[in-house]
């Protein structure tokens, strides 16, 4: 125990030597609390933004020295809290170069964090950090208070309608990880005081608890309506072509940027590779969209030939496939039909997104019988969709069970038989 507490003795001795008698420290709810005064007349005290642990007492001592000088200079005409506030603010202005820290931080990770990922998963929380640390009033003075403000109170969104990030969501987790990473950089690489380290998070409070949304598979008739709703102009034609390709080949919207022809233009491939996947591209196999009579729409049959002939697709920046396709469907000529389909999905408790074309491909692959009367295996479908079997079953296991309805009593037949008995009686 004596060895464990040796730093406490050193800390208190240093205060006595450098600050003077009447000043001391003690633990208070895990933090360092400064006391000033005498037993006879009582003590003034203040809780500091430093943990009661060995690696923080040196920096705490610096603040105590500065604040004690400030308190003495004002001849005790200000409160102890005011003296520490003045000292912290002057220290912050002198030491903390947030803008330089951010510039250095971004330069260090440009090759590991792509621009789109930076904008979606890092920049929002960094903007929130700067919103608070640049304030002249009510500015958080440590990492814990900063996170509380950023995660729960920061107003953002197009009309500032959002406040922080909801607990249990994946987005809050992304923001927390980005927050941690930046503040750790500031402390470890930019010499920020250790009280700017991010707080230790309570797993129960910060783990993701919201369920992943259920992907809605578009029906063939919905796709037919949607394709017919595009305007007749060059811009709309490019997006109509993109929509048709996503539907027939089950593409991720991002894969529209990576389409190529191989083997003397007889095979359509995508060379897209997800960052966390070992799959380097794949050959694409069609599952045609059928009309009400069960025949493929004419446009399904010529997609590969149209691509080979040089028909243009929209220009999409890297990482923007889903966002661009979603915006096109929501805001341009297919808007009314798309929103109508989205409402149909909501009635079923699901959500329609640009990935709904891909979900449709998975559903059809599991449930449409081959020409030889057999079903495709889950492994075949996973390979055709460009992910491993485990990922496929995790996302699409609900499509895998066949003929489930016939394994149970048919409700309609039972009701009809009951009606007939009632009529006879």
Automatic annotation (TrEMBL):
Family: Belongs to the 'phage' integrase family.
Record PROSITE patterns: TYR_RECOMBINASE
Keyword terms: DNA recombination, DNA-binding
Keyword DNA-binding (UniProt): yes
Gene Ontology MF: a single term: DNA binding
The protein's name in its UniProt record: Putative phage integrase family
Gene3D superfamilies: Intergrase catalytic core
Every Tyr recombinase domain range: 213-409
Gene Ontology biological process terms from the UniProt entry: DNA integration; DNA recombination
